[in-house]
Amino acid sequence: MAHTKAPEDAYDARPFVPAGADLDEVRAAAAGCRGCPLHRDATQTVFGAGNPHARVMLVGEQPGDQEDRQGAPFVGPAGKLLDRALDEAGIDPDDTYTTNAVKHFKFETVPERGKRRIHKSPGLREMTACKPWLDAEMRLVDPEVIVVLGATAGKALLGSGFRVTKQRGMLLPYEDRGESLLATIHPSAVLRADDREAVYEGLVSDLRIAARALG
């Protein structure tokens, strides 16, 4: 097993990821991750969830407020919308595994709004620090198709040059997996859109490409 001690200001989760562990053991280890400073303010680590043998892995940005409180990814309105879009696209939500590029909620509080916790996008150092957890999930679930939801997830896997506006809806090569990665928007973008129906249909259209790749 890997040792679990790292400097408080370190940006590296690798010391916390146990070698040779199964998915449940990796999830348990992630609960104690101190690989970047985000753990200090977050309620808890939010690890991936779903079918451990899923054909499709969905990767979002980071937990939101509800995910941080409940300890599971995609439990809020964006998660419900994503399940609906998957079903319409021909992908069984029960045959998916959902996770995030960053496992702790990054936020700021706004006192004039009742100390509401406002989402802040994770930075490159935080994404890089957390990637060993995502790598472990991918290795253990071994999905046929990886769907990255939004710019942050895309940059975490494909580098800082990734642009969701340019690369969405295409099957892209990822490491030694061939053309197995599909990029699309994050479902929360649908909820923020003025023309929700059109943006939602775009998400479903992208997911249909992933469904066809499954055969």
What does the largest sheet look like?
A: 6 strands, mixed
What's the CATH superfamily, by name? Answer: Uracil-DNA glycosylase-like domain
CATH-defined fold name: Uracil-DNA Glycosylase, subunit E
Instruction: Specify the helix fraction band.
Output: 25-40%
CATH architect. name: 3-Layer(aba) Sandwich
The structure class reads alpha/beta
Average residue pLDDT? 93
Q: List low-pLDDT spans.
A: 1-6
Roughly what fraction of the amino acids lie in strands? 15-25%
- In total, how many beta strands? 8
In whole angstroms, how far apart are the ends?
Answer: 38 Å
Shape: globular
Secondary structure blueprint with pairings:
Layout: H1 23-30, E1 49-50, E2 56-60, H2 65-70, H3 77-89, E3 96-100, E4 107-110, E5 116-119, H4 124-141, E6 145-149, H5 151-158, H6 164-167, E7 171-173, E8 179-184, H7 187-192, H8 196-214
Parallel strand pairs: 2-3, 2-6, 6-8
Antiparallel strand pairs: 1-3, 4-5, 7-8
